[in-house]
Design a protein that fits this description.
Length: about 290
């Protein structure tokens, strides 16, 4: 049962002024899906950190507790909390308090543990951040790491290639950190270039959705992926359908962008395809892993 007429999501993420990631994509995507997004900004940057030099970075840790304390005094309730890029490790305890004070254990907690990609930590994170993120992951219902973040969370090496059985073992190990649903993006499965794999402890089933391969990477696609998947879950979709809808939307945005040869650091031209989120996806082709 939703608490609000329009599903209401507390979106804990940064605001990057240019480059199409974090709140600048989370908010329009989820609004297009008919959800109310209430942002809790973790930091304000002039651009994201993936491909721009000299960006400004203002950490908003100092205001976050008072910010949601005001919300608490207003008696606001949320159907979902969805966290992404954090400005400092001290924000983990503040978010855990949000989960407690707003009773989010009984609602939906989605944690996208954003801190690394392509085998490396993002520049604003020190290695000790990983242990703090593990504590937040432990309180999530759903997590959506990419394969690099999954490797850091499990203290393993980033795999070159995984068999289906190995991918299942990774998903189970991540679920042991606490979340009942685990979705890992950019998984290098042996029989596909790149896949999203998923596991739900509720029914013990494993899923995979293969992605198109395009020889370019765009920042912000992980944020868009988790936003669409979260919106679909809140709409009542099953896990594999929600993952499939998210893969479809990101693939469409990437193909659209690639055709224009725009600078990858500017992100995907999702504005051109946002309208497709308002109708149910017809192309559902998930498989059991
Ligand atoms: O899309 C993830 C992300 C979010 N926010 C900031 C980032 C990145 C990835 O580079 O730099 C500021």
């Amino acid at each position: 049962m939703m608490r609000n007429l329009i599903p209401r999501i507390a979106a804990v993420n940064d605001l990057s002024g240019f480059g199409r990631c974090s709140l600048a994509v989370v908010m329009p995507v989820l609004s297009a899906m008919g959800m109310q997004v209430c942002p809790i900004p973790t930091a304000v940057l002039s651009t994201h950190t993936g491909g721009f030099e000299g960006y400004t970075f203002v950490d908003l840790t100092h205001t976050m507790a008072d910010y949601f304390g005001h919300w608490h005094s207003l008696g606001l309730g949320f159907d979902c909390m969805f966290s992404g890029f954090l400005g400092a490790k001290a924000q983990i305890d503040i978010i855990l308090r949000f989960i407690d004070e707003f009773g989010m254990d009984e609602r939906l907690v989605v944690v996208d543990p954003v801190f690394a990609d392509n085998g490396r930590l993002y520049p604003t994170f020190a290695p000790e951040f990983v242990a703090h993120m593990r504590r937040l992951v432990g309180r999530a219902h759903i997590i959506t790491p990419n394969i690099t973040e999954a490797a850091f969370l499990l203290d393993r090496n980033c795999p070159g290639v995984l068999s289906g059985d190995e991918a299942k073992q990774w998903l189970l190990a991540l679920a042991q950190l606490g979340p009942r649903t685990v979705v890992v993006t950019s998984t290098p499965l042996r029989d596909a270039k790149s896949c999203v794999v998923a596991y739900s402890r509720d029914d013990g089933r494993f899923w995979k959705v293969s992605c198109d391969y395009i020889p370019t990477e765009y920042p912000g696609t992980g944020d868009i992926f988790t936003s669409v998947m979260t919106g679909a879950i809140l709409e009542g979709d099953s896990l594999p359908v929600a993952v499939n809808r998210a893969v479809n939307f990101v693939s469409l945005a990437i193909r659209t962008t690639f055709g224009y040869n725009s600078a990858p650091r500017e992100g995907v031209l999702f504005e051109k395809v946002l309208h497709t989120l308002t109708v149910p996806s017809g192309d559902i082709r998930y498989e059991l892993l």
